[in-house]
């Protein structure tokens, strides 16, 4: 009896999968499958998107995009970040995923089924790709892990999170206790 053959997944393989209601991603040939996100997860993504998009509209340095959106970093890596920011081109949003190019910010909101992939597999891949900032939002822990390309440990933010992408006049700031209160408690 022969050795079992290991499948090395590609972006093309993932795109060919039938729609089964789950998120399919591949990072360096490893298939990642996660179920549909929870209400709290989506509330966090939505609130972060609202705040970041408002900031970007005022400063005109990038465009915020929500999942699902296939980002192919290479033929063996296709990810769908919860939220990400791409730079503008001549003051306009990119016309295609190819034109979007580099990622200024990637945000993943943790779910029990995604914690390992978000904190390890995807984080390392985003760092290798040179993503300027990668935020892992832990709603239950009420904190954000901030990673940059050369980091070996995250910066942990529990009170205030600031971000100033290249070319921005002012920094974007989120008071995290207020954000998490809105997401968890429904306080507005």
CATH superfamily: tt1808, chain A
The chain-level mean pLDDT equals 89
**What Rg is obtained from the alpha carbons, in whole angstroms?**
17 Å
What oligomeric state do the depicted chains represent?
A: single chain
In CATH, the topology is named: tt1808, chain A
Low-confidence stretches: none
Tally of discrete structural domains: 1
Query: Helical amount among residues, as a percent range?
Result: 25-40%
Amino- and carboxy-terminal Cα gap: 62 Å
The strands making up the biggest β-sheet line up spatially as 3-6-7-8-9-10
Q: Just give the CATH class.
A: Alpha Beta
For the report, how would you describe the main beta sheet?
Answer: 6 strands, mixed
Give a brief rundown of this model.
The protein is an alpha+beta fold. 29% of the residues lie in helices and 29% in strands.
SSE blueprint:
Elements: H1 11-16, E1 23-27, E2 30-34, H2 39-59, E3 62-66, E4 71-74, E5 77-79, E6 83-87, H3 97-100, E7 105-109, H4 115-128, E8 133-138, E9 143-147, E10 155-157, E11 160-163, E12 172-175, H5 176-185
Helix pairs in contact: 2-5
Task: Jot down its keywords.
tt1808, chain A; 5 helices; globular
Task: Walk me through the structure.
- With 188 residues, the chain is an alpha+beta fold.
- The chain has one domain (37-185): tt1808, chain A (Alpha-Beta Complex).
- Helix content is 29%, strand content 29%.
- It has 5 helices and 12 strands.
- The protein has helices at 11-16, 39-59, 97-100, 115-128, 176-185, and strands spanning 23-27, 30-34, 62-66, 71-74, 77-79, 83-87, 105-109, 133-138, 143-147, 155-157, 160-163, 172-175.
- The chain has a 6-stranded mixed beta sheet with strand order 3-6-7-8-9-10, with helices on both faces. A two-stranded antiparallel ribbon has the order 1-2.
- Helix 2 crosses helix 5.
- The protein is globular, with a radius of gyration of 17 Å.
- The model has no long low-confidence stretch (mean pLDDT 89).
